[in-house]
Amino acid sequence: MPFDIARTRAAYPALTEGFVHFDGAGGTQTAAPVVDAVTDAMRTAIGNRSAAFTPGRRSLDLVSAARSAVADLLGAEPDGVVLGPSATALTYTLARTLGATWRPGDEVVVSRLDHDANVRPWVQAAEAAGATVRWAEVDPATGELPAGQYADLVGERTRLVAVTAGSNAIGTVPDVAAIAKTAHAAGALVCVDGVHSVPHGPTDLAALGADVLVTSAYKWSGPHLAAMVADRAVWDRLRPEKLLPSSDAVPDRFEYGTPSFPLLAGVAAAVDHLAGLDPDATGGRRERLRAGLTAAQAYEESLLERLLTGLAALPGLTVLGSPARRCPTVSFRLAGQSPQRTQEALGAAGFCLSSGDYYAYEYFRMMGLREQGGAVRASIYHYNTADEVDRLLTELDRLTGGKRTMAG
Ligand SMILES: Cc1ncc(COP(=O)(O)O)c(C=O)c1O
């Protein structure tokens, strides 16, 4: 059954404005059921969490519904889901908490492929503890993060390995399961950044080998909130800094302040929306998520193929990396034009793309491209169309002087 793109697009009210969105990696448009759920929650009486009165119980219910939804999305248990304002904030919480247990001589391994949100919190926590930081390197030609190097990077003093499940810059999908296996053999904890990978296919915490997995709902049709998931046993061992009167229960003790209850309603609605991407799917929500995201993934991959083929036919355009497994995300540069200039020219024609380093700071520094403005990123999401890809290619052809070869 082909992916029903007309049905899918109809679920995103913002698409009617007519912009061409190739910036899902920076944040997707919001699905209509999410808008409705947030609005409904704001129109309904809710109080701070309390079992004593109905509005208070509603808030308790919104929190537990969001935890259950995220658990289904990632293959976790609801009581292992920590909710928070952003992936960055949650990772800092975890880094501060773990870092307080590290000693001089301990080691942490980070990668040059990662978004800085899964690098700097660990580097800074290591510095504070006197621990050593070791770096996993990216192959500059292919954009791969070879898993084999972790055998040399990980040792008996390794306390943590932080790695991405999908690069937000060039799409690379590293072999996280193999990396995690190496890390676990040395007794290290594995923190996986799933912010870019989770929107683009089914995710399973155990299959990844992740001890902790981080995701942001605004990258998968939801509101600007994030979650960090682990087995409850992982959280049980950790004692974050916290206010004295706040709950010491797991996972609540990792969450700071009063949550945005209406936005949590949006998180659950976004997961339900993803579970409905394949209208023929049956079974529980986790099964329907697998079906819906598998269908969306195949569709996105067909668009990626079309985009890569078209980009290859544009002389004067260079695509960064050629990883074997990738999310539908591509960075490129036009000869003789700054990425920002390309972004602005595309923006003037109605195309929404990012330029710069998109916080993949270490990758662009390693490539020597930070000082040259980074790159332009085309990031595909399941509401994009083949026609949009073709229009982007035509616009890029114009910007590169109209010398497209027949291969495109
Ligand atoms: C791969 C990746 N990790 C982490 C983040 C940070 O997410 P947040 O904005 O929720 O802090 C981003 C944001 O773009 C990202 O793309």
Instruction: Enumerate how many helices there are, as a single number.
Output: 14
Which class of secondary structure composition applies to the elements? alpha/beta
Present as ligands are: pyridoxal-5'-phosphate
Q: What is the terminal separation in angstroms?
A: 27 Å
Q: Ranges with pLDDT <50 over ≥5 residues?
A: none
Q: Gyration radius, to the nearest Å?
A: 21 Å
List the secondary-structure elements in sequence, H or E: HEHHEHEHEHEHEHEEHHHEEHEEHEH
The total strand number stands at 13
Q: Output mean pLDDT.
A: 97
Described by the principal axes of the CA atoms, the overall outline is: globular
- What is the share of helical residues? 25-40%
Question: What portion of residues belong to β-strands?
Answer: 5-15%
- The strand order across the widest sheet is 2-8-7-6-5-3-4
How would a textbook summarize the main sheet?
Answer: 7 strands, mixed
Describe this structure in words.
It is a single chain. With 408 residues, the protein is an alpha/beta fold. It contains 14 helices and 13 strands. The protein has helices at residues 5-10, 32-43, 54-74, 87-99, 120-129, 150-153, 176-185, 205-208, 232-236, 261-275, 285-312, 339-348, 361-366, 386-399; strands at residues 20-21, 81-84, 107-111, 132-136, 158-164, 189-193, 212-216, 226-230, 317-319, 329-334, 351-352, 354-356, 375-379. The strands form three sheets. The chain has a seven-stranded mixed β-sheet. The longest helix is centred in the last third of the chain and has 28 residues, at 285-312. It is globular. It starts with a helix and ends in a 9-residue tail after the last helix. The model has no long low-confidence stretch (mean pLDDT 97). It binds pyridoxal-5'-phosphate. The site of pyridoxal-5'-phosphate (PLP) has 14 residues, from helix 4.
